[in-house]
């Protein structure tokens, strides 16, 4: 109850004014006085237990039932897991794209810069998203504010309680929870109200709600204040779930002057715009993908080279590489890196085997052609010049279904010479061994024969690598033209065995490289140069051959050969488990 003493009431009103001015500095004197009067009325009503007896507010469960059905979405942990997987995959793909696009020139800083920028932006996006998700957002948009319009020569005459109204206007406003958080009754710091200065209320109707019965519930709430003759409508502090909405239609005496939306929300805001949700449940995912791809593009195209080889020579021309299929993946990576460092230079790759490449170069000498070979050129190619590139470790490969991890040198010789033909002599399984060999143009095959002592004149006995051409043949031996073909054949046949460079074998999930005499991938990784020198014989030196004209200054061949001797090119070779001949510990092997 308010005090009866006028002086006490005056002091209370003064204190209320001071509090309101400090809490809401944007309020003018008229608004402050209005809030003071409203506070006094609420205090007076609170002292009368029967003040609201005539109107019983609807229970909260009824309002909840009237709210729109919330759209089902994946649970937050599941969305987070999916987003993490997708973003991680996108980050990996973009890193590969940058590396392929920019080669080694941005590897040190560009890739890590991409990762750091993507992570930082992802954190920022997630933080902003969480803030937006937790913000309460109530839209009160005045969609119509106009006088009644009629045809020329006619007029409108309304009446209110028998009093004619000749200057009638109408306001239509839509109230909607456009946020993702539910708005509770106690979230209204000050009530949502519509103020129309200079005009007077005639009537108010709540209509067109979503769902339909919400309008009736809002109209029945006791704190809806719509008194004819006043210049303000105060809407009730109604509980609204996301997407719940209703429309108010207000008839006024007087037109023009506009309508002001007033009110405050706790941890949120009231807007007069048709505000959409600024973020949805998958906003971080789309934003993260956008950040990753934009950052990747900037890294690939705008970041200046940070590890460009000193004195790199660039020549605008076209160069062809042919020969060894074992070195094909590495050669493609090196060619792409050089093209990135030297725009306008084109290095094309076509590998059909070491001997085929040497024959092509020898039969048609061309300063714009280089041949890769993992076997030393025979005497008939003596006119060609060579540069040692790297030592390539090879391995015997088998399908992962075979329960075997090691072979002796004697077993390898007998298998690929066609004398050991059944798995029962190795693993105990009674099934023919399907040997997948390379053709006679292959440098890898020449290495197997020369370094391990495999029979050199053995012919193929099968086309499909599973059955012999002649029923009487005991050995099943087929030939393939490239390393990739050998890996593919072994990967699809659990009884097959073949050979390839170790890097290619490790790239297949269905193929396993076997140790020879208990020396395998683990031992080779530990100290490859010493192991190859002392304990492992299945390896070769990759060389690149050229004609005398290719050494001429100003040719793309000479510039590319010089690039192959740089530390950046050596790092690419190491990624494929090859040992660059520029390393001091490997130089002896390359010269042997």
UniProtKB/TrEMBL annotation:
Transmembrane segments: 80-98, 110-128, 285-303
Signal peptide residues on this chain, from the entry's feature table: none
Membrane keyword on record: yes
Residues of the PBP domain: 313-567
Entry keywords, A to Z: Membrane, Signal, Transmembrane, Transmembrane helix
Pfam families in the cross-refs: PBP_like_2
Name of the protein in question: PBP domain-containing protein
